[in-house]
């Protein structure tokens, strides 16, 4: 059972359980060649930590770094709001990662020289009808059984915290320890921090094959593409997401490693073998589609489509707290996430539609209806942007982390709805595993072998 405050105690309990980290030999680290497949927050986070330790890291991203699920997310850090009694290990992992977020934010903002919009106002989970209240009570009971720091509120008490809520709100749960981060700021910061530490980022570069010989991963074959480039500065490539209304362009990544982008650069994209001591597979929903891994041990990861939109808050119609709805009669519960810049993020559908990223009228309708019922003032707000993302869901919707039956091949994928939340624990623990060989008890339940 999880005890007391998820944020304070669970994180420290697991940190205490992990044996002290040994400082890796500097020569061994500097001579360790690591290739990462996938440039979302997971791949970038691991690469940044490894590069900080002195490893030689090259990251290959099939499109533009951080512009798939990482860009499409809402940035909620909410293990309490999504707690389920049938997923105790995932809850522990989420709480552990949340406890490490202050450290993560401090390190990342220092290396990237920018804010990533970390906020600590908490979450309100609200119900609007008697059936919703019944479902809310069931969730609250589960949270208390797990020892989580959750508070039951009447509708009036909830509106005292968040006046924008509808008068129809009958009850709510307050999860004060659930926080949020601006995931798009984090997506901007991670490549800066990674490259500032000497990491090489190869965007628009597809890995055609993981080379495996006698059960050992030896490198990757990278296909030549017209748009491939070694990114250590310069203008970003086009996004694969739906063109937003009024989206500002990201600032260029700092030119910290331009000297490495030369004729001998490790971003050479001619079809050839790029050797590595360790290969990390962090390609999100594409992780199961890269050739070279035997079919029997491919990570079982699929795309789960999510549609979202952003509104512009205005004077008199503003939200300060993350709001989540529990709706017993409707197919889609929604969340509303306020940003410091005045955007209000509304999400998200969950659709098993393969790699289809089309927006639908039905998806937008369900999101807007759910948001309007919880916060009627959204009716007056202008729409800034609509988009879709593809979450990487495993067979049990929990991440796949750690060693594989193939020597020198590590996986870090399948984070589903929790990619932003689980970025710190994944980056810290996977990098520690590679640098020290020390297995981590916190990620042990999430190894690929549970599916084999």
Give a verbal description of the structure.
The chain has 452 residues and is of the alpha+beta class. It has two domains: 22-78 and 183-297 and 396-451, 3-Layer(bba) Sandwich (FAD/NAD(P)-binding domain), CATH 3.50.50; 123-176 and 302-394, 2-Layer Sandwich (D-Amino Acid Oxidase, Chain A, domain 2). It is built from eleven helices and 20 strands. It has helices at 6-17, 26-30, 41-52, 69-72, 88-99, 101-112, 130-145, 155-161, 183-196, 361-374, 423-436, and strands at residues 33-37, 56-60, 76-77, 123-127, 151-154, 171-175, 179-180, 200-203, 207-213, 216-222, 229-231, 272-275, 278-281, 301-312, 322-325, 335-338, 343-347, 383-394, 400-403, 409-413. The protein has an eight-stranded mixed β-sheet. Strand 19 (400-403) and strand 20 (409-413) form a beta hairpin. Helix 3 (41-52) runs parallel beside helix 9 (183-196) and helix 5 crosses helix 11. The protein is elongated, with a radius of gyration of 22 Å. The model is unreliable at 1-23 and 232-264 (pLDDT under 50).
What would the CATH topology of the largest domain be? FAD/NAD(P)-binding domain
In CATH, what is the homologous superfamily of the largest domain? FAD/NAD(P)-binding domain
CATH class of the largest domain, named Alpha Beta
Q: What composes the largest sheet?
A: 8 strands, mixed
Strand element count: 20
> What is the gyration radius calculated from CA atoms?
22 Å
The best one-word shape is: elongated
Please give the domain count: 2
- CATH structural architecture of the largest domain: 3-Layer(bba) Sandwich
Q: Gap between N and C termini, in Å?
A: 28 Å
Describe the strand arrangement of the main beta sheet, using strand numbers. 5-6-4-15-16-17-14-18
Query: What structural category arises from helix and sheet content?
Result: alpha+beta
